[in-house]
Amino acid sequence: MLTGNQYLDSIRDGRRVYIGKELVKDVTTHPAFSKGAETIASIYERKAASENRDVMVSEEGGEEFSTYYLQPKSREDLERRYETHRLIASWTQGFMGRSPDNFPSYLSGLATQPKLFNDLRQGTGDLLQSYYRKARREDLYMSHAVTNPQGSRRAGDEMDVAGIVSPTLRVVGEDDEGVTINGLKMIGTGSVYCHETWVGNLQPVPPGQEAETITCAVPLNMEGVSIWSRKPYELSSGREFDAPLSARYDETDAAILFENVKIPWERVFLHNNVEMTREIYFRTPGHSLANHQANIRFVEKLRLIVGVAHKLTESNKAGSIPAVKSTLGKLAAQLASLEGMVRGQIFDCEKMPGGFVTVNRRFMYAALHWCSNNHSKICDVVRELMGGGPIQMPADSSVMDDPEIYKKFQTYWSLPDQDAKERMKLIRLAWDILGTEFAGRHMLYEKFYAGPGFVMDLYSYQLAGWDALDKVVDDLMAGDNHSK
Predict the structure, then answer these.
(1) DSSP-assigned letter for residue 187
(2) Is 104:135 a contact under the CB 8 Å cutoff?
(3) Which whole-number Å values give the CA distances from 271 to 24, 107, 224, 253, in the listed order?
(4) Closest to 439 in 3D by CA, of 394, 375, 370, 373
(5) 171-210 pLDDT, tens per residue?
């Protein structure tokens, strides 16, 4: 297992990361990424600490590994995974969604069903299990890029005036050694900090586009791979006091460009299969385990949001108003409801082939639906409770650098039970949740975490158990009370 320092050393590996036209040579020292890298390193360090090892370190065959690589065979295993996810999420208050425990949940679930992959291409399931053991042994931090560029045209369309057909990643060649891929994949959240990325599809691929179904694992320092970051919020966050979340927890999002990258067959897990390129995640515990992690992570974020809401009403002296108490009570009930939904996924877990289990998928997708549909609404409620506090504060914490100005700040912005510095600190935190560019990204992130709203609806539709629900109605209508 990696220590924090070993993790930092391992990502100084010649990867190509771009911020606009700037090529970043070392993400661990660049001002746009260094604090984010330190946050990930702290996760590696803390999960191996003596007080956390009983939960966060598992053992199999004499090998120790991070519990988020544990392939669950019992409710107790799911409980250990839950506590691992919960602790990691609490260390970033739920604001790093693609923390090191996210993609290993996909991979661990996929690798429980080697027969599915062996049936698709002989030996592939064995290769997948081998790759899973490698990732587990090396404690890899992985991202996944499983979305195609928005609005991209299908290959085979007429070329535009620039001679470009489609930017979507596809296989452009193959031989006895492997495949060559070329094109763009989205959205590599956390990729600037990761060792490797998983390339695949969580969107349907239409017939005729078999070359786009490629599913493989790619080291992010390979020749021909480059990571194109969106605007990093850490770079413009200033002091941590003024933007405590932006400064530490911007995991960044990126497009990943593959320019004629050669992938050996031992890293290729699906090829030329339109039907299964998406289905592999749903016919294994992969999708359910990974999104269970997302549910747990969201609970920790909501815990902070609700706590901040209460502190804001204490600060602005609105907390004693009955209507405000009612609003806070509703927020507390929403938090408790989500916690119950997540715990229920474990209590009513499902059996999978091979002696494995996964969380209750119907409950998990319902919780995912709840998170996607309620995050923005909850933030609106807290924004209303906050009032105009953010625009009543000085521009930034530099007012504390000058003794004379700081004295005036303390004199006129303090309250009888709260000094100006503490008020400003709370409001800056609240604004980083609700109003900064970092906050805006999280609004978008949570709304589309698992795809558009109709996709969320369809997950729940498919797992609703309509036959059982219809039977409730049919049995009632068939009763004696309705025959007379």
Answers:
(1) -
(2) yes
(3) 33, 17, 20, 26
(4) 375
(5) 999 999 999 999 999 999 999 999 999 999 999 999 999 9
DSSP class of residue 25?
S
How far is Cα 200 from Cα 131, in angstroms, rounded to an integer?
15
| Residue recorded with tokens 């933030």 | 379
| Residue 279 to residue 4: CA distance in whole angstroms | 36
Q: What sign has the CA pseudo-torsion 62, 63, 68, 69?
A: negative
SS3 40: helix
Q: Which two tokens stand for residue 387?
A: 């009032």
Query: Of 369, 383, 232, 193, which is closest to residue 298 (Cα–Cα)?
Result: 369
The CATH architecture of the domain made up of 4-279 is Beta Barrel (2.40)
Is the distance from CB of 44 to CB of 4 less than 8 angstroms? yes
Mark residue 380 as left, alpha or beta (left: phi above 0; alpha: psi -120 to 50; beta: remaining). alpha
β-strand partners of 158 = none
pLDDT exceeds cutoff 70 at 214: yes
Structure tokens at 98: 């693609």
Instruction: List pLDDT tens digits, range 393-446.
Output: 999 999 999 999 999 999 999 998 999 999 999 999 999 999 999 999 999 999
- CA–CA gap between residue 100 and residue 96 (Å, rounded): 9
Angle at 444 between CA 449 and CA 338, to 5 degrees: 55
What gap in Å lies between CA 5 and CA 132, rounded to an integer? 23
- φ, ψ at 401 (rounded to 5°): -80, -30
What was the pLDDT predicted at 155?
46
For the record, the structure tokens of 341 come out as 């939904």
* Burial class of residue 219 in the structure, from the number of CB atoms within 10 Å of its CB (0-12 exposed, 13-18 middle, 19+ buried): middle
How far is 57 from 64, CA to CA, in rounded Å? 6
CATH topology of domain 286-474: Butyryl-CoA Dehydrogenase, subunit A; domain 3 (1.20.140)
Q: CA angle, corner 404, sides to 398 and 406, nearest 5?
A: 40
- Cα torsion at 375, 377, 381, 386 (round to 10°)? 60
Write down the domain spans for the chain.
4-279, 286-474
User: Taking 80 as the threshold, does the pLDDT of residue 474 lie above it?
Assistant: yes
